Amino acid sequence: MQWNWKTIIEPFKIKSVEPLGFTEREERLKILEQAHYNLFNIKAEKILIDLLTDSGTSAMSARQWGGIMVGDESYAGASSYYNFENVVSDLTGYKEIIPVHQGRAAERILFSIIGGKGKRVISNSHFDTTRANVEASGAEAFDFPVKEAFDFDRYAPFKGNINLEAAEKFIKEKGSRSIPVCIMTVTNNSLGGQPVSMENLKQTRNLCRKYRIPLFLDCARFAENAYFIKMREKGYSTMPVTEIAREMFDCADGAMMSCKKDAFANIGGFIAMNNAGWAQKARQLLILTEGFQTYGGLAGRDLEAIAIGLGEVLDEKYLQYRIRAAQYLANSLLKNRIPVVVPPGGHGVYVNAKKFLPHIKSLQFPAQALAVELYLEGGIRGVEIGTLMFGKRDSAGNFIPANMELVRLAIPRRVYTQSHVDYVVEVFAELAKRKKSIKGLEIVEAPPVLTHFTVKLRPINAAGVGGRRKLKAELSD
Ligand code: F0G
């Protein structure tokens, strides 16, 4: 059935529900203080609307829950593995299908094989765990985003593209032998969940072929990317999304997927490729730390749920609703003069805190300050994408301001309805009225790696001399 109504409805009905975590403002004030103004430290039951991530937070379908019951838990040769293998190889066209427990396990395995000292991995943008795993292998990670990706107010259809000229210049300078792989992240999570065009993917394939560099997709949100291609790229408007997805995979030599996103699974992932030599090495590493090659750290029931989810995500009515849900949130925020990155990405909306709170200096963490106020005002949890998340420091341990201060409102799949979204917008409208009163934050304690997960902060007006001394002492350790 073609859906031509203006109102895009949730294409599901709800069979099973969970209560939301209602709290009073007074309680939230205390919770924030106890959590050291770090939203990762708040118990989920104290969150009303949780927009921290779209990863592993999807609502599974009744069919997926049915799959959970029939999951085959045999150690070797489980039928659930073969269902999973068939679905992934039909989807991608790749021959070697290796299950893993989540995306970063795929990254660790791949870069243990092809990374290492002296190697350079290139990408449109590495996601943080991808970069961390490249670097953990001893290699270096280089991003080549297009310029318009940083122009948050300007509409461009494919801000997730790789800058081909810059990438080719780099390959020529460094020599292709030092580059074991090019990773295209679809959609580009680190830069607003923006899509990559088919044209850019094909040109990347040509560039990689010219220099004999294998091309891999980080395809956590491949279906959202494929749907953007259908909506925005010439020549694709009538092509089924399944075929568009296949064309994307055909451009590459392999893929890594966190199935916690576009497979509606709460856990899981895979590496898929045609290179039998790499696959053999990957399976050896898999057995060492993940599990036997027909379960890779997952239960049979998880494999079954992933196999079913990978089919469901390609339903175009679902994808239409999914992309429109992010657009609805973005447009409603814009109407209330809340600056957001445009166009919105597939899996969420990114609020430009630097623009919303221009009175807060970068080193007083405006995006974190906004995320904290959002929780205080309405029990909503988003995540800072800014100076704390990027965590760059100078030699004295002082933070270097990031070139963006965003709050990501990631939308879990099939979880919240339009009234939840309307509530989020209402809370933002309230914040907009008193935005001048919102103050920045300062560091109490900041560990050197993956700072944002464990950093301790406090409001700037609570700063005491002792606090500053403590910070200095810690940073100089
Ligand atoms: N690649 C991309 C593009 C991702 O967004 C993520 C995770 C991973 C790889 C790693 O996968 O979590 O299964 O190990 N992104 C989550 C997020 C954490 O909130 O965006 P994982």
Shape: globular
For the largest beta-sheet, the strand count, sense and barrel status come to: 7 strands, mixed
CATH topology of the largest domain: Aspartate Aminotransferase, domain 2
Mean pLDDT: 94
Percentage of residues in strands? 5-15%
Helix share, percent: 40-55%
Given helix and strand content, the structural type is alpha/beta
Task: Map the helices and strands.
Elements: H1 25-34, E1 49-50, H2 62-70, H3 79-92, E2 96-100, H4 103-114, E3 120-123, H5 128-136, E4 140-143, H6 164-174, E5 182-185, H7 198-210, E6 215-218, H8 222-232, H9 241-251, E7 254-258, E8 269-273, H10 276-289, H11 300-312, H12 316-335, E9 348-352, H13 353-356, H14 366-378, E10 380-381, E11 383-385, H15 387-390, E12 406-410, H16 418-433, E13 441-445, H17 451-454, E14 456-459, H18 465-475
Parallel strand pairs: 1-10, 3-4, 3-5, 5-6, 6-7
Antiparallel strand pairs: 2-8, 7-8, 9-12, 11-12, 13-14
Helix pairs in contact: 1-14, 2-11, 3-11, 4-5, 4-10, 8-9, 8-12, 12-16, 14-16
The structure holds ligand F0G.
Ligand F0G binds at residues 53, 55, 102-104, 127, 129-130, 185, 189, 218, 220, 258, 260, 269.
Tell me about this structure.
The termini are far apart. The protein is built from 18 helices and 14 strands. 42% of the residues lie in helices and 12% in strands. The longest helix has 20 residues, at 316-335. It has helices spanning 25-34, 62-70, 79-92, 103-114, 128-136, 164-174, 198-210, 222-232, 241-251, 276-289, 300-312, 316-335, 353-356, 366-378, 387-390, 418-433, 451-454, 465-475, and strands at 49-50, 96-100, 120-123, 140-143, 182-185, 215-218, 254-258, 269-273, 348-352, 380-381, 383-385, 406-410, 441-445, 456-459. The protein folds into 2 domains: 25-54 and 315-476, Aspartate Aminotransferase, domain 1, CATH 3.90.1150; 62-312, Type I PLP-dependent aspartate aminotransferase-like (Major domain) (Aspartate Aminotransferase, domain 2, 3-Layer(aba) Sandwich), CATH 3.40.640. It binds ligand F0G. Ligand F0G is lined by residues 53, 55, 102-104, 127, 129-130, 185, 189, 218, 220, 258, 260, 269.
